[in-house]
Recover the amino acids of this structure.
């Protein structure tokens, strides 16, 4: 049924459901053969090669078994040609015996019908005796030793019986020696009789099972004989049935022939009537088409006459429109003449009142001189504005550079805060609370030291971090003991934070025990305090607690001569390039003891901010803001002056324009009056005779109305003709409809009769 199939059983009951031939038994066979079972266990074939799909040379069964600690996978490859099998466990070749051992260890018994019951073995399972069922059940569901114990128990019972007989013999022998041989003989007879009785009982059980098989066999034989007799009788019964059917069919055929003949005789008159109706319908249809053509021709002539009448109406409307345009043109001409007369009178009045042209040159020169001074002053202001604007742009560029640099420094601070948040969440939460509640404290509170300490050189961060404890790195620094207690007792009591208090007397300026110059011969280059910057109270705490002002930092040179350094300097703590040394003197032996540890990689101070640079940048930014404010004020004053000068410039230019216009006005008026007189004469010459134009229009309209009357008369005759033709056409259509209805009825009857005739045929 299929080439390959993979089955994944689940817990509890698994059912494989399908129609016959879909391959359910193939899965059962695969389970048996894959677990070392023999073909005889299944009862379908005697060779494993016969279980491979037809046409294939090889078949494979792979079964995965649950086992602690690891599952095992058993694979069996079956060759059809030589009927052999190859076995594999977890992909490695093995033998059948090894596979059987693995299967037996899991108590899998494919040869036990109580554990594995193929379809073809159900009958054999039903024939098992009670003793065999008990033994199979013990093997199937009991522990491995149960069946063994049962066998031993039966053996012990046999031995017990023998011992009882022997004891009986011994007892009798002690009383009567002559009867001993007879008792032994009776004992052997008794054992033989018992064995024969057991065999007889088993044979009787077997005979009872065989009786059922014999009865089923005889019953099957009777059924087969009955089937053979019925098979011999079947052809005669079939023949008699078919002969009767033929007789019935012949009678129905004769009746159908008579019915067909009657139908054909009834069909002939209907056909003749349909043909006559068809001829009449075609004749009427031809007459209707002719009338329709005549009506169409008359309708076209009516349309032409109507179009001609509309054209005449349009011509009359055009004549009226032309007359109205003439009237409008004459009225417009009269209005223009009146307006022209009024304009000439106004200009003459203005000309008569205008005095002789006085000398305006001195006043014009004064205005020109003032305009020249104004332009020079505006040029100076524009130059000042340009210079100030350029300076402002330079300052803004410098301001942007400072803001960018401060942003970079703030980014470093943000990185340090993120590092604090990632490593010490509670400390970061407390820091956020502190920034929002600084006003609650009497004195300044400093943030965790890892944020306050800024390395001058990030390469030296490892010395400071290895010297200061991690708990102090994340500790807040207070200047007041009261503030520190209030901070620790605030609402955030569940947070794990550290806090320290700076000493009342400042230690930030404490001097080292000796100057660094005295230690440079040993490779020391600085004390820890000089490697970083911190607020004064933080530095005071570090000097007091960790003595950062007196712990020198050395180089590889210091490491190379470390024994000499310890002996000569008597220092208590020193740093080389990669190590930290702590020196102690024993109070009992007065011996010098030193311990060295490798420096840890820095985690908190590698991203430091130069506070001096940041403070300098902020001061520069404030200075630039002040300069920009001053420049804005100066530019505002200059813009106000520029606006005032522009206003004064516009006023002087307006005065100059008015002076020039006063000198040219008289000449302009005289020229305009002359031109208007010429225009007036032309308008008076272009007069229109409206009475004459009206008479000509009436004559044209009268001629057109006469033509319209002739067209209306012709149109009336055509309409009457069209109406009479339509009446005739309607009469023909009614006749055609009647004939068509009759024809359709005949055709419907003919069609029904034709269907009946076809069915009869």
């Amino acid at each position: 049924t299929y080439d390959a199939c993979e089955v994944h059983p689940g817990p509890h009951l698994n059912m494989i459901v399908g129609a016959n031939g879909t391959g359910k038994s193939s899965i059962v066979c695969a389970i048996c053969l894959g677990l070392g079972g023999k073909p005889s266990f299944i009862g379908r074939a005697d060779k494993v090669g016969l279980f491979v799909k037809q046409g294939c040379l090889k078949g494979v069964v792979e079964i995965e078994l649950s086992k602690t600690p690891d599952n095992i996978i058993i694979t069996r490859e079956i060759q059809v040609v030589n009927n052999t099998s190859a076995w594999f466990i977890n992909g490695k070749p093995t033998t059948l015996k090894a596979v059987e051992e693995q299967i037996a260890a899991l108590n899998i018994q494919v040869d036990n019908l109580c554990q594995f019951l193929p379809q073809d073995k159900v009958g054999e399972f039903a024939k098992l005796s009670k003793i065999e069922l008990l033994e199979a059940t013990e093997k199937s569901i009991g522990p491995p030793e149960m069946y063994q114990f049962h066998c031993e128990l039966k053996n012990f019972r046999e031995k017990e019986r023998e011992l009882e007989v022997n004891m009986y013999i011994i007892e009798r022998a002690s009383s009567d020696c002559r009867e001993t041989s007879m008792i032994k003989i009776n004992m052997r007879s008794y054992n033989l009789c018992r064995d024969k009785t057991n065999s007889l009982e088993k044979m009787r059980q077997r005979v009872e099972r065989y009786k059922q098989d014999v009865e089923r066999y005889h019953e099957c034989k009777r059924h087969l004989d009955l089937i053979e007799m019925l098979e011999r009788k079947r052809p005669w019964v079939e023949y008699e049935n078919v002969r009767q059917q033929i007789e019935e069919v012949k009678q129905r055929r004769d009746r159908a022939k008579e019915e067909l003949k009657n139908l054909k005789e009834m069909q002939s008159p209907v056909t003749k009537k349909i043909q006559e109706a068809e001829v009449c319908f075609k004749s009427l249809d031809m007459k209707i088409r002719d009338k329709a053509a005549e009506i169409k021709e008359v309708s076209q002539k009516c349309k032409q006459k109507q179009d001609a009448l509309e054209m005449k109406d349009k011509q009359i409307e055009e004549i009226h429109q032309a007359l109205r345009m003439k009237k409008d043109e004459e009225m417009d001409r009269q209005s223009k003449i009146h307006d022209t007369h009024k304009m000439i009178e106004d200009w003459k009045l203005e000309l008569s009142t205008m005095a002789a042209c006085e000398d305006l040159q001195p006043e014009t020169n004064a205005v020109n001189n003032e305009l020249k001074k104004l332009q020079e002053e505006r040029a100076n202001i524009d130059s000042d504005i340009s210079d100030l604007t350029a300076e402002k742009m330079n300052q803004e560029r410098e301001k942007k550079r400072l803001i960018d640099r401060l942003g970079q420094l703030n980014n470093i601070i943000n990185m340090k805060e993120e590092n604090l948040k990632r490593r010490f969440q509670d400390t970061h939460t407390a820091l956020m609370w502190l920034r929002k509640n600084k006003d609650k404290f009497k004195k300044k509170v400093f943030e965790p030291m890892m944020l306050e300490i800024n390395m001058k050189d990030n390469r030296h961060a490892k010395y400071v971090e290895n010297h200061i404890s991690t708990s102090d790195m994340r500790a807040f620094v207070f200047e007041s003991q009261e503030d520190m207690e209030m901070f620790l007792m605030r609402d955030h009591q569940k947070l794990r934070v550290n806090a320290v208090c700076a000493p009342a007397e400042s230690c930030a300026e404490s001097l080292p025990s000796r100057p660094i110059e005295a230690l440079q011969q040993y490779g020391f280059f600085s004390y820890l305090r000089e490697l970083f910057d911190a607020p004064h109270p933080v530095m005071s705490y570090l000097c007091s607690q960790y003595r950062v002002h007196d712990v020198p930092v050395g180089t590889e040179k210091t490491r190379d001569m470390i024994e000499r350094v310890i002996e000569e300097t008597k220092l208590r703590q020193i740093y080389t390039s990669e190590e930290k040394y702590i020196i102690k003197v024993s109070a009992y032996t007065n011996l010098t003891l030193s311990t060295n540890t490798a420096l840890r990689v820095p985690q908190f101070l590698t991203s430091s901010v130069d506070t001096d640079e940041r403070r300098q940048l902020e001061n520069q930014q404030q200075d630039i803001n002040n300069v920009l404010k001053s420049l804005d004020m100066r530019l505002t004053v200059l813009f106000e002056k520029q606006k005032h000068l522009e206003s004064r410039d516009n006023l002087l230019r307006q005065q100059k324009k008015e002076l020039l216009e006063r000198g040219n006005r008289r000449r302009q008026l005289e020229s305009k009056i002359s031109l208007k007189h010429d225009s007036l004469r032309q308008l008076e010459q272009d007069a229109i005779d409206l009475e004459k134009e009206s008479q000509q229009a009436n004559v044209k309209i009268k001629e057109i109305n006469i033509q319209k009357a002739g067209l209306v008369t012709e149109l009336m005759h055509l309409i009457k003709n069209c109406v009479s033709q339509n009446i005739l056409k309607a009469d023909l259509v009614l006749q055609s409809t009647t004939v068509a209805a009759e024809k359709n009825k005949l055709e419907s009857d003919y069609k029904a009769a034709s269907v009946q005739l076809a069915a009869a045929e």
